[in-house]
Here is the input.
Amino acid sequence: MRGKIFGLQNNAVNIALSLPLALAGIAEQFVGLRFTLLGLATLIVIANFSTWYWGRPPASATPEE
Here is the structure.
């Protein structure tokens, strides 16, 4: 039963990852490899900073000394 569940999960992940790959291929045809990679890198940096900003605990949640 575990094998069936993990197999289904693996198929779902593979299907979900195929769309970004197809979109990156289309973007590369229209704007070129350099701009596609720079755009993806920019999205990753923005996601990194937004996760860091919204993932911090609020200032009021810090323990008092």
Helices lie at 2-31, 33-55. The radius of gyration is 19 Å. The chain has one domain: 2-54.
